[in-house]
Every structure is written in C-alpha cells, then in structure tokens.
Amino acid sequence: MRQRVRQSRNAVLRQFAATLAVSSLVVMVGLGGASAQSDKPAPDQGKAAAQPADAAAKDAAQNQRRTDEFAEAAQVINGPAGNPECVWLGRRVVRLMWRDDLDTAFRHLDLYDRFGCPGGHVQATFRCLTRFGGQIDPKVAETLSSRIHACWINPGAQPQVAANPAPPATAGNAAAAPAAAPSPTPSASPAPAK
Q1: What is the pLDDT along the chain (194 residues), one digit of tens a residue?
Q2: Is 172 left (phi over 0), alpha (psi -120 to 50) or beta?
C-alpha cells in the first residue's frame, strides 16, 4: 500500500516537474522574442526622461490643487460626504452624469455607495450643476471641474442673475416703453360680506 502511495506521489511530482519545465520554456521563448525586438526603445520608456520640467511642475501644481480641494471639502462638509474617497467618487459620478455616460456613472455610484457615502449629496450636487448649465463652457474642461467642485462644496448655490437688465435698444433715441402691468382678473365668486 505504501509503495503505491509513493509511486503515485512520484508520478505527480514528475508530472508537475514536466509541466513546470514546459511553462518555463514557453516563457523563455517569449522573452527571447521580446528581447530580439527590443533594439529600439519603446515609446513609453523615454517618456519620463523626455518630459520637460515645466510639465512636471504643472503636474505637481495639479496634484496640490486636488489635495487642497479635498482638504477644503473635509473642512466645509460635515459627515461622510467630506471624506476624500466620497469627494473623489462623487464628483466623478456627477461629471459622468453631466456627460451622459450613465452606465459608467451608475457603476461608480455603486462603488460610492460601498464606501458609505451619502447618495443624496450626489443628487443635490447634480441639481446644482444643472442650475449653472449655461455658464459651463464645454470646450474648457476646467470650467466643468471647477463648477462640480463648487456645487459639491455648496449644493444650494444659485447662479448670479443680473438685477436690472438693460432694456433692448430701439430705433432712434426714444426709450422703450415699459410693458403695461396686467390688470387683476375679477374673481368668479364674490367676496364674502363682512
């Protein structure tokens, strides 16, 4: 009995060694082909070295700005909506919803919920963003990002409206006549007597 167990164990070990040898041979052949083609440097290899210093400074400034935004959100917003993971995921969900990428937005929203972030804050932020829709330039990505962040910090923000817009210009120097105020409509039922 013991001899059969030893024989089967040896057979398993031999099979494992053969499989290991074949797989390592395949890996070595693949590496040999890759090294034969690697006479030219890959485009990604020299990218970090070729990056100018101003681009690195720009990246550092952008990372600092993001860190400052997270710190600002943590100071202004009480509760989990101010946590960095909630801020990052929530703003991403709102941006995806704005760009009509709803499938991806819902997948991010599931992840947002898993972190215990409040779903109502995403809803309020998107509502705020729709109020400012006319002020967002679709050609400048930074306007959307800054507006999303401002709405995340203060979802109750309202767009600024001009107090007294200038009347439209008319022909000549005459000022435009103000529109007549509508007269009150008589009610169908008489007022009760006192």
Answers
A1: 666 656 766 666 677 556 655 565 555 656 655 555 555 555 555 555 556 677 888 888 888 888 888 888 888 888 888 999 999 999 999 999 999 999 999 999 999 999 999 999 999 999 999 998 888 887 887 888 889 999 999 998 888 765 555 555 555 554 444 444 444 444 444 555 55
A2: left
CA-to-CA dists, residue 172 to 167, 176, 177, 179, angstroms: 14, 10, 13, 19
- Residue boundaries of the structural domains of the chain: 80-157
Q: Report the alpha-carbon distance of residue 60 to residue 30 in Å, rounded.
A: 38
Give the position of tokens 């710190």.
71
The token pair that represents 41 in the structure block: 């440097």
